[in-house]
Structures are given as C-alpha cells and as structure tokens.
Amino acid sequence: MTDRPSVLVIGAGIVGIACGIHLIERGAEVTLVDPEPPGSLTSSGNAGGLGSTEVMPIGAPGVIKRIPGWLLDPLGPLSLRWRHLPSMLPWLLHFHRASGRHEVERISKGLSSLLRRSMQDTRELVHRANLQNLITERGAITVYENEKSRQLDALEWQIKRERGIIVEALDAASIKQMEPALHNVSCGYFTPQWCNTTSPIRLAESLASFLHSMGAKFVRGRVDAFQEDDPLRPVMLNSTVSSWDKVIVAAGVWSAELCHLLNESVLLESERGYNTTLSDPGINLNRQIIFGDRKFVATEIEEGLRIGGAAEFAGIYAPPDYRRSERLLEIAKTYLPDLNISDGKSWMGHRPSTPDSLPVISKSIRHPELYYAFGHGHIGLTTAATTGHLIAQLSMGEKPDIDLSPYSIGRF
Ligand SMILES: Cc1cc2nc3c(=O)[nH]c(=O)nc-3n(C[C@H](O)[C@H](O)[C@H](O)COP(=O)(O)OP(=O)(O)OC[C@H]3O[C@@H](n4cnc5c(N)ncnc54)[C@H](O)[C@@H]3O)c2cc1C
Fold this sequence. Notes:
Blueprint: E1 6-10, H1 14-25, E2 29-34, H2 42-45, E3 49-50, H3 61-72, E4 78-80, H4 89-98, H5 101-128, E5 135-136, E6 140-144, H6 147-152, H7 154-162, E7 168-171, H8 172-178, E8 187-191, E9 195-197, H9 200-213, E10 217-220, E11 223-226, E12 234-236, E13 246-249, H10 255-261, E14 269-278, E15 288-291, E16 296-301, E17 304-313, H11 323-335, E18 344-353, E19 360-363, E20 370-374, H12 380-395
Parallel strand pairs: 1-2, 1-13, 2-10, 4-17, 6-15, 13-20
Antiparallel strand pairs: 3-9, 5-9, 6-8, 7-8, 11-12, 14-17, 14-18, 15-16, 16-17, 19-20
Helix pairs in contact: 1-9, 1-12, 5-12
This protein binds flavin-adenine dinucleotide.
The site of flavin-adenine dinucleotide has 40 residues, from helix 1, strand 2, helix 2, strand 14 and strand 18.
C-alpha cells in the first residue's frame, strides 16, 4: 500500500505520455493503457512541426469563404465524404460560429496562452529525458505564389503579429537564397520561432521509454466501458477491473467515444491528414516549408522528406483514400521540380479537432477526479508538454499556471 495517488491515463499518444511524465514527477503512481504501442498512431506520422507560432484557429472569416472552392477542387486541401455530413452537422455549426471575427480574436488568445510557453515546456521535457538531439530550431518559411494569395491570409499574419510572433516578410530573391530547391513562389514569411523534431515517432517512443524508466506502467488494452458508470473503474476486455484515484482521458480522436460512455458532451471530429515520406527525395530543404496557397508542408526528418497536409472529414473508421497523398506529391512537384517521388511511404492520421481549434484541458463536469486532455487538432505535438504540465497541476491539486477556462469541456 502507498499513499501516492494512482492515476490511469487512457491513451499513450504524445499527449498521454507527456501527462504521465508530469504526473509521476509530482508523485503519482502512473499507469497508461492503450491497445497500440505508445505513440504509434497520430503522434507517429505527423509533420514534426513545433509550431508555437500557430495562434490562428482553423476557422476564420476568410476560410469560410474559401471552403466551397476547396471542396470542388480535386487537388484542394479539403474534402468531405458526403455520407459523413449528417453526423458532423453540430460540429460544423459550432465551427461556423467560432469563425466570426470576434470569436477568432478570443480563440487566438486562448491558443496563444498555450503556445507562448509551448517551446519552453518542450525544451524542458526533452532536456529531462536527454533527448535534445531530437529538436531543431531553424524556423519555418510560409510561401505564396503571388501577392494576391498572400493577401488571402492577411488576417492570419496580422493576428500572429498582434500576439507577439516574430514575422519577417520575404521576397522571391530572399526565398531563393534561403531555399534554392523552391520554385514558383514569389513572396512569403519567415517565422524564426518555429522549431521541429527530427523524428515524431522517435520522440514519442523515447519519451515513453523515459516514462517507463521513471516507474510508469504501460498496459496493452482498450477501455470500452466504465463499471457501474463509475469513471474511476474503466473496463478492458479480458481484464479484471481496477479502481483508480484519478483518470485522465487522453485518447486523441477516440476520446469522443469515451466521453460518450461518460455522458460528457463534446464536439470532436477526425480531421484526417495525409502525407508521404520520401526516403530519397533528391533535394535538400533547410527548414520546414509551409505552402500557403495549397495548405501543405514539406519537412525534412530522419526518415526522409515528409510531404503532407490535407483535411478530410470522413469519420474515424472509413478506409484511407491514399489518392490524397498522391495529389499532394503532384502539387509538391510544381514547387519542387527536382523532387524524386519514386520511393514514398504513405500515411494517414487523425487530427483530433474541436470546432474552435482549442484543445480540451479540463476537469470533468460530472466527476471530481476525472480529467480530459485531448482535441489538440493540428498542434498536438507542439502543445503536448504544456498540456501534460497543466493537467498534472490541475489533477494534483495545484493552481494551474494559466487560466484554463478557454479549454473547458463545459463549452460544448
Ligand atoms: C498529417 C498530420 C500532420 C500533423 N502535423 C503536426 C505538426 O507538425 N505539429 C503538431 O503539433 N501536430 C501535428 N499534427 C497533430 C498531432 O499529430 C496530433 O494533434 C497529436 O498527435 C495528438 O496526440 P494524442 O496523444 O492526443 O493522440 P494520438 O497520438 O492519436 O494517441 C491517442 C492514443 O489513444 C489510444 N486509444 C484510443 N482509444 C482508446 C481506448 N478506448 N482505450 C485506451 N486507449 C485508447 C490510441 O490507441 C492512441 O494510441 C498532425 C496531424 C496529422 C494527421
């Protein structure tokens, strides 16, 4: 027997792992449960961007106007399987409400509170685990084909500057000098605060090993019920039921299913993203490139050059449509003509996206010892360390460093 609180973290993606490290450091006995190896789903194949500059929500007045055109364009950044439309209507209505000018202002402040400390929290986390070699600090470039397309994103850049993000305007000559492999772009921005991991999968796996070395237990299993509706008594198939002092739901996009079992209202969609990792791309990039016209990115990681993006709404269980990765490669060739696309590995992952782009970092409304850490959408890698820190503070009775009301589950 011990008087250390026992905490079960449901989900061992990058967010659950970061929660586990911060909890164990505060004296909790930590167990993570996941049917998959730690970090092996969404957290393994992302673009590796530590985008502390990304204070703009996905929904914005300009974005709403561009959605019909994107949906009609077979090479566009957005797609929707129409069969999925009825079930996501409440999410879409909330998304529409969250995309008004005043809401965007409010949401970007919520994102900024997390993002302004995210790099420091990430540096501290990787330092403790001695994984500094997995982080690079070279900034990112966002490029546009012409001034007209740059203007379409004007509000995003205005808001970034208002939130204190360093933004340096670039012309065609300076882009060429910084990234000789790039063609067909005429202007852009350099954001020097942007960082990257050299390998999302190795970062997640190494942090999980570090957590294991600190004494955390990893259990293979899927939570698929709660005994007698008690959130502290999750049930896994073929396993005896244990009781925990505290439970953290950190199951990425699958958290919606757990919230449903727990009678907690939430709006969470899988914003399915695609990429291809080219092991022999034939070109070099000096930093992450974000293509503003077509909304995709190119990132050099240990495994090769990863080209990806896209947002597909089709629910969690529809099979992947890898034609989307192929289309992204076709488009990438127009900007990177020397790109060798012959040896690529395609991947699809589920961004756990709320309609207002803010994650859920929250106490449950229903139960005093149940907590939520999910819904990080496009910035889960970036904000995992910060989420872990805040959830540990919240669940271990400390006053969280920042106001957590923007991330409350009560907003749904
Ligand atoms: C194409 C793409 C590019 C991206 N690029 C970036 C980027 O550059 N920078 C960035 O910050 N973010 C990026 N993201 C987003 C980022 O990858 C996610 O926000 C992040 O990985 C979410 O982490 P998570 O731990 O919440 O979820 P996950 O990594 O999905 O982990 C959730 C875990 O919960 C487990 N689970 C599910 N149900 C149960 C259950 N019932 N019981 C037990 N366990 C369960 C799953 O098996 C899984 O292991 C990208 C995403 C995509 C798809």
